[in-house]
Design a protein that fits this description.
alpha/beta; Rossmann fold; 7 strands; five-stranded parallel sheet; Arc Repressor Mutant, subunit A; 339 residues; globular; 11% strand; 3 domains
């Protein structure tokens, strides 16, 4: 039976990318039915934590991931307590929290069905492996990152395009931009990043409601509407038709990329390395209520089975092979702990 999995992410530029990376990684698990919520109103800031009842999608989900959603230094106590109360009131659900800002872990640890994980570099702020999408996400933040050492010039252009697409007040932030990312419309987003800055004045990061959509932005809006509803297409005024796209003329791949553009992957078999690694990482996070937590290999295997469901038949021999190479684990004597 499928488990309904929900990803809730911040409605800024890197939040869209991180949500899409996590979605692609989680969908390698055949028993997961994954949905994503990025909303310019409902998931736009740290006040989300006191308004979780507005996310009605949580009610129909068994596993929930809060991604790239920070706590404000001035009000983290109220926000953390609100999240804990919300989670404790739903003991049958599992909640995961992942962010690249420090988290109030002590307060959050009161919720036994919530696991919080802080990863300082945005490049690592995902469940499962990072691809070049996480390079873009890291470039869109003002934090130190290894992405600066491995980026290509095209990454800067594409990051700028995504920043323009995600700008509050514009037509694309939220479901439309998610649809573009899911459909690998990178060439179109590059065109947006290559337009003259004069066409994208974003005071304080916002797009003025009085500004006209640039040609690339209008095309993307039309394309996003088509992707979301191919039967009833709403074309913005003065938007030229979207031309057919040619194959990408550049290569985004980096060594860790498992999902290059234009390649659609079927759900992974239980013996697929990617599915095994994602499940083991989720299991390790679940078994780590504190940074000092340790667990046995048997504990990890049992938790992975619990998360994957009865339809996932993990083989202990496969698990043992993976454990020797897993980058998210470290030895703690005869036990294991999360890095």
């Amino acid at each position: 039976m499928k488990q309904r999995v929900l990803i809730v992410s911040h409605a800024d530029a890197d939040g869209h990318l991180i949500a899409e990376q996590v979605r692609r990684n989680l969908e390698t698990i055949a028993t997961f039915d994954v949905r994503t919520v990025v909303d310019p109103i409902r998931t736009s800031g740290h006040r989300l934590w006191t308004k979780l009842d507005h996310l009605e999608e949580i009610d129909s989900s068994e596993i929930v991931f809060f991604i790239d959603l920070m706590f404000a230094p001035s009000s983290f106590a109220v926000e953390a307590d609100s999240l804990v109360d919300f989670v404790v009131a739903r003991p049958s659900k599992r909640f995961f929290l992942l962010d690249h800002h420090p988290l109030p872990v002590r307060r959050l640890s009161r919720a036994k069905n919530l696991r919080a994980l802080y990863r300082r570099d945005v490049l690592d702020c995902t469940i499962g492996d990072s691809s070049w999408m996480m390079i873009l996400a890291a470039l869109l933040e003002k934090q130190p990152t290894r992405a600066q050492r491995i980026k290509l010039p095209i990454h800067d252009v594409l990051a700028r395009g995504i920043q323009r697409a995600a700008a509050p007040g514009g037509p694309l932030a939220g479901p439309k931009l998610l649809a573009l990312l899911r459909s690998d419309r990178w060439d179109d987003l590059v065109e947006l990043g290559q337009e003259e800055p004069s066409k994208h004045r974003l005071p304080r990061g916002r797009r003025s409601a009085r500004s006209d959509a640039s040609p690339a932005l209008a095309r993307l809006d039309s394309l996003a509407c088509e992707l979301m509803n191919p039967i009833a297409i709403t074309t913005p005024r003065n938007a030229p038709p979207s031309p057919a796209r040619s194959p990408m003329s550049y290569d985004f791949d980096i060594a860790t990329d498992k999902l290059p553009p234009e390649i659609k992957l079927a759900p992974a078999h239980p013996t697929d390395l990617e599915a095994i690694v994602v499940l083991l990482e989720l299991a390790a996070i679940t078994l780590s209520p504190t940074p000092e937590s340790t667990f046995s290999t048997a504990d990890l295997l049992r938790e992975a089975h619990e998360l994957g469901g009865d339809d996932i038949a993990l083989d202990e021999k496969d698990i043992e092979i993976v454990l020797g190479k897993a980058g998210f684990l470290r030895k703690a004597g005869k036990r294991l702990s999360l890095k």
